[in-house]
Amino acid sequence: MRSLSFLSMEYLFLLMSILSQCLKFGSGTAAVVHVGNGDGVQPLSKIAIHKAVYALHENASVKAHPLVLGTKGGDSDWVTVEIECPKPSEDDWIAVFSPANFRLKEFINGSSSICQPSDDMEQFPHICSAPIKYKYANDSDADYKKTGKSSLKFQLINQREDFSFALFSGGLSDPKLVAISNVISFANPKAPLYPRLSQGKSWNEITVTWTSGYNVIEAVPFVEWGMKGESQTRSPAGTLTFHQNDMCAPPARTVGWRDPGFIHTSFLKDLWPSSVYAPQLTSCLREMMNEQCVPNTVFIFAFRYTYKLGHKLVDGSYVWSKSYSFKSSPYPGQDSLQRVVIFGDMGKAERDGSNEYSNYQPGSLNTTDQLIKDLKNIDIVFHIGDITYANGYISQWDQFTSQVERIASTVPYMIASGNHERDAPNSGSFYDGNDSGGECGVVAETMFYVPAENRAKFWYSTDYGMFHFCIADSEHDWREGSEQYKFIEKCLASADRRKQPWLIFVAHRVLGYSSSYWKDASFGEPMGRESLQGLWQKYKVDIAFFGHIHNYERTCPVYQGQCMHVGKSHYSGTVNGTIHVVVGGGGSHLSGFGPTLTSWSLYKDSDFGFVKLTAYNHSSLLFEYKKSSDGNVYDSFTISRDYRDVLACVHDGCEPTTLGS
Fold first, then answer.
1. d(Cα 468, Cα 580) in Å, to the nearest integer?
2. Which cofactor does it need (predicted)?
């Protein structure tokens, strides 16, 4: 049977969307209401922008104000859009375009214009660039169909270009351009923005990556930084970007393309190690979980660094970002309080209620806001795949980096590669779908730094104090004998468990255990278990984290489908079996569980949330699952053990011995 093309799938999604809207209108609902857990479809893909036709009406108008945004130095601002339409309809909608002159993009044979020829295009010139967001005209005024007037508010972020607003009739599937607004822009559109920190390749190195509109021929990028209150130094930054012909498939290569600007990365080296010491906390660790213990004073010896992003222009003047700060990492093996947050599949959402919010990534903002609320108690974050769900609409990456800026500018924001970052047909991904919308890993690899030897192969290791992390790339071959398999074994084997007792494995797809049905009606990814569980057991991995399935689940310490340790809330003694945790409820539409009751599953929750690990010292670890809705703990356990417990012989996890004396 011939498979559906990418565009055919888009049309299918469009038809589903139209049917959904019709049902809403048929039930007497005047305004479009966006609710529910979402359908998993990128909202911008619902717009058949390549089929748009011009139907400009002389009595229709769209006016946007203020004309200049960010006049007080901010990188986001609110815009009011006033609409007047002589022939209003329930399915009229307002699109936000950036750059503003979207009407002028034409396909010229042999050029690299973003407008690619298509049998579906209705006229020339074509609108061949998707908007960056949209709202229905009746979103805030149920009387729009009667009055033809509406006032909408959009929150825009600085994305290096100007903006315009367009009124369309005909719904998302048959758009007709009715009116176009005036142009608005940010006061400094090229400003350096949205810094994201990452661990470097050594423990005393932090990388800072940011986005700007300045190429290196216009301005020299750098970071000015130093210990808070002391003299500052400057470190140079490298500059990367990517182009439309780097994309592998639609829509990234067609209507979803938008210039990403320039991505700069600077390496801040020779940092002094920070420490957070909590004496006597571990003596009442288990009681803390039952709120029977009040921990004593936590002593913080933190080397806090301040930094700001800079560009030196060719005329000798400077452009600066606002100031930020971060705390340096502890020395590997350092005995101090260390706190790690892990989640997957968060995506982005819009605080102004446009397209995505409440129907595509319904939990995304809650997760973001809970992390910001608790940021002073977080040392490092791992977002383990399915980062933005941009799915080939490049504008969404700016919006995501803006959403997580307060987190990523303060603590290392480490990412893993998921199917929505990497998978594209005939691109070398292990899975041959087009979940990335044609991005084929290029965007994620450029927008975020990770300490991989080759960022096109998104596997890497990193240390944080007493933790050793092995980050796999589930979108490349991980089977026994593969290049990645060899990396995984080398990474696990390299952990010095006396210094770093907490060994963590991370991948996006569930290469271990999950009670959600997979395509072959088994659990998780069976080939993953067959290939990797021998390594997890041999090297005594404490916890394996996965995303991809949009819920939360925790297993017992398990090996070959059998629980190797009794108990649910506390584990001590010999390390035997690995605890598998699915933490894919970061924000995207939720997944359910299969009907089969599995003996190794201890806790399930189809809700949005994240995990926090707290290492108090080399012997005590606290695991907490928190819901994004309220930040409260809904599942937890502790581990307590000594170094000899890691060394102890277990089934398929013994060092060879000899009878010789």
1. 16
2. Zn(2+); Fe cation
- Global confidence as pTM: 0.89
Structure confidence at residue 293 (pLDDT): 53
Element (H, E) at 262: strand 262-268
pLDDT of residue 287: 52
Output Rg (C-alpha) for the chain, integer angstroms.
26
β-bridge partners, 626: 610, 633
| Distance separating alpha carbons of residues 2 and 398, to the nearest angstrom | 36
- Residues β-bridged to residue 561: none
525 is written with which tokens?
Answer: 């990814």
Indicate the pLDDT class of residue 655, thresholds 50, 70 and 90.
Answer: confident
Classify 81 as helix, strand or coil. Answer: strand
Residues 611 and 331: their CA atoms lie apart, in Å, by 23
Instruction: List, in order, residues 6 or more apart from 4 with CB less than 8 Å away.
Output: 12
- 49: number of Cβ within 10 Å: 23
**H/E element, 613:** strand 609-615
Separation between Cα atoms, residue 484 and residue 422, nearest integer Å:
16
Question: Omega into 595 within 30° of 0, i.e. cis?
Answer: no
Q: Alpha-carbon distance 553 to 597, whole Å?
A: 13
3-class SS of residue 98: coil
What is the residue type of 165? Answer: F
pLDDT digits (tens, 9 = 90+) for 386-397: 999 999 999 999
In angstroms, the first-to-last Cα distance of the chain is 68
Confidence of residue 526 (pLDDT cuts 50, 70, 90): confident
Map residue 464 onto helix, strand or coil.
strand
pLDDT of residue 207 exceeding 70: yes
pLDDT tens figures, 617-649:
999 999 999 999 999 999 999 999 999 999 999
3-state SS assignment for residue 559: strand
Residue with tokens 């393309």: 257
The model's pLDDT over 96-118, given as tens digits with 9 standing for 90+, comes to: 999 998 864 443 333 334 455 55
**Among the listed residues 168, 177, 183, the one whose alpha carbon sits nearest the alpha carbon of residue 100:** 183
Cα–Cα distance list, 482 to 49, 369, 473 (Å): 42, 40, 12
Query: What does the block give as tokens for 439?
Result: 């991005």
Q: State pLDDT tens for residues 328-373.
A: 999 999 999 999 999 999 999 999 989 854 456 789 999 999 999 9
Q: Please, what is the angle between helix 364-373 and helix 395-403, to 10°?
A: 30
Residues 228 and 472: their CA atoms lie apart, in Å, by 35
| Number of neighbouring beta carbons within 10 Å of residue 150 | 26
Strand partners, 97: 164
How many other β-carbons are positioned within 10 Å of the β-carbon of residue 432? 11
Helix (H, G, I), strand (E, B) or coil at 224: strand
- Residue 338 CA to residue 453 CA, distance in Å, equals 26
